Amino acid sequence: MEGALRACKEVRSSRVRCRLRCQDQHPFDATFSDLRFPDVVLRRAACMNACIEERIGTQSMHKVGEDVVQDFHRRIPYNYLQLAYRKLEQPDQAAAAAHTYFQANPEHVEMGQNLEQYKDQPGVEEEHFVDREARPHQRSFAAAVGLYDEGDHRGAIALFEEALVQYYEADSECRALCQWPQRFDGHDHLRYRYSLYEIISDHFTQVLHCEHECVRDLATRPGRLSPMENYLPQHYDYLQFAYFHEDRLEEALQCSLTYLLFHQGEESMTDNVHYYREMLGHDGQPREEAAWYLRRHKQELELLLIGSETMGVEFTEGNYWSSTGGREDSNRIPSGTDGWMEYVPISEKKNVVVAAQQQLKEGGPLVYEDVQLVQNSAALNGTQRVLLDRVISEEECSDLRRLAHAVTMAGDGYRGRMSPHTPNEKFEGATVLKTLQFGYEGRVPMGSARLFYDVSERARRVIESYFLLNSTLHFSYTHLVCRTAITGQQDHRNDLSHPIHADNCLLDPEANECWKEPPAYTYRDFSALLYLNGDFEGGEFIFTEMDAKTVTVRWEHFLLHGTAADALLLQVTYRFAEIDGPLRPLQASVKPLCGRMVGFSSGGENPHGVKAVTSGQRCAVALWFTLDPLFRELERLQADEVIQALDTQSVWGGGGLNINPKDEL
User: Fold this and answer.
1) How high is the pLDDT of residue 185?
2) In whole angstroms, what separates CA 346 from the centre of its chain?
3) 519 upstream amide cis, omega within 30 of 0
4) Could you give the maximum distance between any two Cα atoms of the chain, in Å?
5) Which residues make beta-bridge pairs with 618?
């Protein structure tokens, strides 16, 4: 695994260096002509191929699938490494690997607990908790902020200047990587519909967009979906005050003018410029590297707008330089920061919407007489939650499990990643439409495929009725899923089968908020899990608080009943620990059983996860619903057509399933 990480860094470094070297060797000059453009492009291509093969060998040896690329981006290798180093009794290396993984995956509760354990182990020091993938410019900037807060302005100046140099170097490297092949999902039709010039235009528009977005990439910290606001301008903002404290007014004026390139006319900084000019008796100029950077950024924007209009693709410019206000504090801390490296907390973001809580209604009829209410929201210590039993029968559970064994595929729904949530389990899934297709082809009994369709509709009706919804609840996604413990990987396991999350917003445990913004499925309104079995170890479903750590449980419920006996009858397990004297409940978990269904609203009021499956296989029908008909599940609409055709027997009329293509739907 360490070799894989080294190889990944070497391949990246080689691509960057070769790209920059070949760009210098074969520049575009002023004598541009129709032949000059392809001449330079072809020579650069030949140069890069030769350079890469010289440095790391044949390029085909280093091509990997998108799932591997994503795993390295998510720092999955460090999850494996911390486990391996722990088993090798090398806690210092394990701590570094765990810390590196946690920086990019702060929602991973178990890794956070591992880090706390490492802190108490002999031989592990504070300096062992390092981010092995830390970006130099972000590390230098954070250290500079720390020195500034301590009043060490001279040291802060050196680190801020170093951070700027590293930032512009990282920008060049990011842009160099954009020159490698781009992915054009859904663009295979270009070769048939457009001219050569339009195809070339499309490619360079994609490359230009990648380069333009480097400003966002460089300002985004590991584990964050949004960039740090006002990131680059703040370097100059800090510097102008640091230089002021060191009585270096020439540099202070220059940095102030540079900041105004990003925020023209900002009142507080304009006042500073007037002050510096008056003290110096002359004007100054902004830094050329920043002025050139912004000129290029604006030119790219103009070209992207032309390219998007030509290719008929929507393009929206990001808000890269958002200002966060002036300075009111007596300590003259730079604008847009509170003096700490978390200078723009996510809780202060103005461009996102906090997930709105659903109107609290529940207790409607359960539609089917066999269905039994086990717990409502109050018993589950939350809002918009319900636990039901006997939603389906034992026979139906067995039939659906046999169906799952025949139709589910590893990594279905997760781009083929067999273990998308934990390396210790195999994940398999199948959609309703795929199941019906298997039934039509005779690979599974059509009755079983139809049962999956009918059972999911039964669950939808129950949820819609129980929560007293005034409008139709539509399917957003329907998935038959199984999680299987991987033999030999369960010893000393302490991760989760599915990390704590919310279904329609981005859980931010640090801010104790859930942000309803992409890439979350913001249109999902309700969720349900219908379990097919209970003959496995682990795999309990848990609700937590917004901090993604505290599992919700009613202490009053325990006090009223005196013992946990009643809770056990409800398949809820309470665990207790002594903290500061009195006992308090620490954990509640719902054990899956055949026919049991848990339903809940999909927002931040209901963070949830799944405990590790340590033995056997856990199967369920996972369902997500929306109240917005515009976001109905496409495959469900197609499945509706298949069922309608089956009911009229026209599906057997020859030539396969009569399903509309996606673009028609």
Assistant:
1) 43
2) 15
3) yes
4) 91
5) 483
Catalytic residues: 618
Q: Name the amino acid, one letter, at 88.
A: L
Could you read off the pLDDT of 216-261 as tens digits, one per residue?
788 776 655 556 767 899 899 999 999 999 999 999 999 999 999 9
Q: Which two tokens stand for residue 115?
A: 């880090």
Cα 410 to Cα 152, 276, 426: the distances in Å are: 55, 65, 7
**For residue 219, how many other CB atoms are within 10 A of its CB?**
20
Helices 446-466 and 394-407 cross at an angle (nearest 10°) of 120
Q: Phi and psi for 214 in degrees, rounded to 5?
A: -60, -30
CA dist 101 and 106 (Å) reads 8
Across-strand partners of 425?
A: 485
pLDDT confidence of residue 260: 93
% of the chain surpassing 90 pLDDT: 38
List the structure tokens of 195: 């001219």
Query: Which H helix or E strand runs over 157?
Result: helix 153-178
Q: Identify the pLDDT of residue 515.
A: 86
Cα separation, 124 vs 97, in Å, equals 13
Name the residue with tokens 């859904």.
186
Angstrom CA distances, 480 to 150, 401, 453, 457, 639, stand at 56, 9, 10, 13, 14
Alpha-helical regions (H) of 263-369? 267-280, 288-311
For residue 364 the two structure tokens come to 């409607």
Residues 6+ apart with CB under 8 A from 280: 249, 250, 253
Sites in the chain below the pLDDT cut of 70? 30-33, 59, 107, 180-199, 221-227, 229, 311-315, 318-360, 411-420, 547-588, 649-665
Task: Indicate the SS3 state at residue 543.
Answer: strand
Residue 665 · residue 634 · CB < 8 Å? yes
Residue 544: per-residue pLDDT:
86
Q: Which residue from 150, 123, 225, 259 is spatially nearest to 506, judged by alpha carbons?
A: 225
Strand ranges (E), 431-555: 474-485, 496-501, 506-508, 513-515, 526-531, 537-538, 541-543
How would you class 331 by CB atoms within 10 Å of its CB: exposed for 0-12, middle for 13-18, buried for 19 or more? exposed
- pLDDT given at position 599: 96
The amino acid that residue 213 corresponds to is E
